[in-house]
């Protein structure tokens, strides 16, 4: 199935609008590889940590971090989680998400450092119609983040409320 909206554009061409998937387009067991990856920078770490008021020295103080077990600053794990979820948006939920319902089973089994590249994959774990919201369905997915060497650095289970195709609001050309 295509993750784009398609209309006639005239003169024999098609107009294609990028979007995520509607509820009916998800299937348990499907795996999505979100590319390109995102290389983590020192600026990402300092800015994200500062914006979120996380003054943890392991993120901001190179001299201190050098004395700790990993020997260098760690990327803020919330940056890793947010970037992992964000990497999935255009392919899965852009314009088709009603709301994020929850995140669980979040783990960071290995560190991510400045200069590492985060690659995210998503597996669809469950798909079911909403019992209380006609025209919508609930999709459970597992995001897995790996560094450039294939080492798993983060995992999270995410539950999203998605539009069914026939109930979704029309997307304007300006959206």
Give the topology, please.
Elements lengths: L3 E7 L2 E6 L12 E9 L2 H10 L5 H4 L1 H5 L10 H17 L3 E11 L9 E13 L6 E11 L5 E12 L12
Antiparallel strand pairs: 1-2, 3-5, 4-7, 5-6, 6-7
Structural class: alpha+beta
- What's the main sheet like? 5 strands, antiparallel
Distance between the termini: 22 Å
Radius of gyration: 19 Å
- How large is the share of residues in beta strands? 35-45%
Q: How many beta-strand elements? A: 7
Morphology call: elongated
Task: Quickly count the helices.
Answer: 4
Order of helices and strands: EEEHHHHEEEE
Strand order of the largest sheet: 3-5-6-7-4
Overall average pLDDT: 93
Q: Approximately how much helix is present in the residues?
A: 10-25%
User: Are there runs of 5+ residues with pLDDT below 50, and where?
Assistant: none
């Amino acid at each position: 199935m295509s993750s784009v909206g398609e209309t006639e554009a005239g003169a024999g061409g098609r107009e294609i609008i990028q979007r995520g998937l509607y509820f009916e387009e998800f299937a348990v067991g499907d795996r999505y590889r979100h590319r390109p990856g995102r290389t983590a920078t020192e600026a990402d770490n300092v800015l994200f940590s500062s914006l979120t008021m996380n003054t943890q020295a392991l993120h901001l103080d190179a001299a201190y971090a050098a004395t700790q077990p990993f020997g260098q600053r760690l990327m803020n794990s919330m940056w890793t989680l947010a970037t992992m979820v964000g990497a999935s948006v255009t392919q899965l939920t852009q314009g088709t998400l009603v709301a994020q319902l929850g995140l669980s089973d979040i783990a960071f089994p290995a560190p991510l450092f400045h200069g590492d590249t985060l690659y995210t994959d998503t597996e669809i774990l469950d798909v079911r119609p909403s019992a209380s919201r006609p025209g919508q369905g609930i999709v459970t997915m597992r995001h897995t983040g790996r560094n450039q060497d294939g080492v798993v650095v983060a995992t999270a289970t995410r539950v999203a409320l998605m539009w069914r195709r026939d109930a979704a609001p029309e997307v304007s050309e300006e959206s």
